[in-house]
Amino acid sequence: MESKADLNLLIEHVLHTAREHDLWKTHDAIVVAVSGGPDSVALLHILHQISIRHVPLKLICAHVHHGLRAESDSEEELVRGLARELAIPFEVARVDVPSYMKESGKGFEEAARDKRYAFLHEMAQRHGAASIALAHHADDQAETVLLHLLRGSGLGGLKGMRMKRSEKNVELIRPFLRMYKTDLLNICEQNGYAYAVDNSNFSNKYRRNAIRLDVLPLLGQYNGQIKQSLVQLAEIAGVEDDYMEQAANHAYHEMVQYKDGRLYFRAPSFLALHVALQRRLIKLILNYLSAGCEIADFNKIELIRQGIIQNKSTTWSLDIGGGLACIREYDMILFMHKPPEQSKSYTYELQTAVPELCIPEIGMKLKMKLQSPHDSYFSTMAGSCAEAVFDAGQLQFPLTLRSRLPGDTMKVMGLNGSKKVKDIFIDAKIPPSVRSRIPVLVDGLGHIIWIPGVRRSAHAAVGTQTVSVLHMRLEDAKAVEQL
Length: 483
Hints:
- The protein is of the alpha+beta class.
- It is built from 15 helices and 22 strands.
- Strands 7-8-11-10-9-12-16-19-20-21 form a 10-stranded antiparallel beta sheet.
- A hairpin with a 4-residue loop joins strand 13 (356-359) and strand 14 (364-371).
- The longest helix has 30 residues, at 226-255.
- It is elongated, with a radius of gyration of 32 Å.
- The two termini are 63 Å apart.
- Mean pLDDT is 87; it is low at 1-5 and 379-384.
């Protein structure tokens, strides 16, 4: 829309947007958020014109007095006067943002938004409103997309703000989202609509302001249509994100089953999905189990996905936070609420020596290295790892690293006969709380040959006839020491 657009053209544009996105129905009650700035003042005037000339609507003018600037009182009076002039009910809230910041630990922008939206929802409930109208425009959309991009967002963040979105059983609607601020300023100037100027908008102290005042003008030197490009990106990302969500929902209903509070599917059907759908499906499952709480970040989703697509182990268990666990039992992948004292059972089979094997169930990793008997071994950091060496030629593969089982026994080096692993722990004064994090290594004949950090067996001992040594080290997964 050109900057010289008149009021009637703007009204037609908003009506077209409303029909396209089903923003309201006849006789809907709409809470209009009005700060007193040109955008929200224009929004109230436009919706008022629509309500008396096109679609009967019940409007409620809602204003938040933050009390942080000297102009706050005059802005409240300006909005109150506007509502009176248009014969629209007026609601105002005075909020204490600094106190809420201390209470919640949130920054100013987020704290102010929380308070503002809480009031708007309260007004919607009081007046039985179907929606809350917000004055966000295309410039705001460009800033939002760029903010999300800088934070490392995925497709869901690049779609920016939605024209219509449900929140707490109320629709948040943004009739101006495809219009630019210059159009709204022109409408106010041409029609004599009084509005307030918030001088804090010209300070780059806040991140969004810095994006608007510094980053976008800089990018504009390389793309004169940078705002339009970002808004277009939001349009494209929004539609494609919707498509991917539909595909993920379809995969969910096709593959995922529910029983006894658990969601589960079979690994082969998961592996047949495109990687993008694999990630979406995991996120969807986690969101369902966590009742919509955001616990599914990219790293967590990818950790689960990698565990499913790798075939190094038949069983594993992963604590994914939020009281949830993901467990693999052969080809079955299960997601569930974790019992308070869930024992972590796992099995990793090694057909040959591997440089590194991660064991997420205990937060450890096993490093392995084949070398000559004359080579120096790994350097040892006291308390950080456990090491052992074996005659590689005498080892029976496959080796299995697993959690301890009841009745496990080991033939201890220097001792005739076998001894229960439980008794070995007791003799070594290993605290019960630590024992669950200590795995056992079993050779291809079923013999336990090593309890890392505790004892090793008499099997495959390094001797004068040894040609090749397999050196193994179990260490904390967070260790940064290199081989």
